[in-house]
Amino acid sequence: MMGRQPTYHGDPVTLDIRPLDPYRADQETLDGYHLMRAAAWAADFPEDPPMTREAAVGRLRTPPVHEGPGRTWTGHLGGRLAGSARVSLPEAPNEGIAWVEVHVHPELRRRGFGTELLRSVLPAVLESGRGTVFGLPMKPDAAAASWVAGLGFDVTHSTVMQLLRTTEVPARGWEVPVPDGYRLVQWTGPTPEELVESYALARRAVNDAPQGRTSYRAPRWTADQIRTEDREVAEAGIEPWVAVAVEEATGQVAGMHVVHHYQHRPAHAFVQDTAVLAAHRGRGLGRAVKAGLMRQLLARRPDLELVFTTTAATNTHMIDINHALGYRTARTMNWVEIPTARLVERLAQPLDERSS
Description:
Blueprint: E1 7-8, E2 11-12, E3 16-20, H1 27-44, H2 53-61, E4 70-77, E5 80-88, E6 97-104, H3 113-128, E7 132-135, H4 145-151, E8 154-165, E9 182-187, H5 196-204, H6 223-236, E10 239-247, E11 253-261, E12 268-276, H7 285-300, E13 306-312, H8 316-325, E14 328-339, H9 340-347
Parallel strand pairs: 6-7, 12-13
Antiparallel strand pairs: 1-2, 3-4, 4-5, 5-6, 7-14, 8-13, 8-14, 9-10, 10-11, 11-12
Helix pairs in contact: 5-6, 7-8
GO molecular function: acyltransferase activity, transferring groups other than amino-acyl groups
Protein name: N-acetyltransferase domain-containing protein
Pfam family, one: Acetyltransf_1
């Protein structure tokens, strides 16, 4: 494919791009990957804790299950690992999407390396037959924002990342009563079989949240899909924590909250889903399941420091609930996507590499 050749110190150079198997890579390669990712993380998210080696390598080996199977490549300049690219292929209902994640060391940006990495993984996207390419969500003013705009990516959704620092919330902050007519049920591990059907229905309510124009869709959960996710999460070594509000009169799940805990980030937890069925909204169930799960999680994981959650920027109701529980909004993130055919055309043309 055509396109401007990357440069270094004003001279044209070629990245040595290689596949990376995170289980077979030698320690020097993994160390180099960590140094690159940590530097990029510090530049892009200075408000977050530094990225440890354990977190960088662990994210390679244990990505979120919703991303689907993925492959990673690294780009080397001389003896230095300069950047990486990953292609992930989510499963139904997102079988038409390919996630492409590109990182470049901050000292090597604006030289065309990002575009070279993206160009090198495009054959894997084409091989997959996916018609839409998703980029890594980014801040509106991120270094990569003008780059992806120049490539033709569209912003189709905006979210806010909210952080909860557990030490800033007194224990009484989690003492939120469950509304009359409901009881709180919690578990970690497989979903209780007597709740799996109604739990799947409650998780479908996530689709009611604002989604902008994004092509990505949350699963239309079924009991079998819940069982499959339970198995995949266990096989990946991810620890799921779930709290649901069960309606006493029917024994059915009315609202739910799911958090994942990863071994490679022991002090952090990540909210996956929160939803309340339409017929049960307006009664405080969302706040009750969130608070109830935090009580259990902190009792079992007293070393937990941060909880991360992402909410649509227009979902002011959920944002306000999170604020009431002690979350603070850290940043806005834009989701970007482009039809694969259009990206092929853009990468075949000379590009302005200002931010890559």
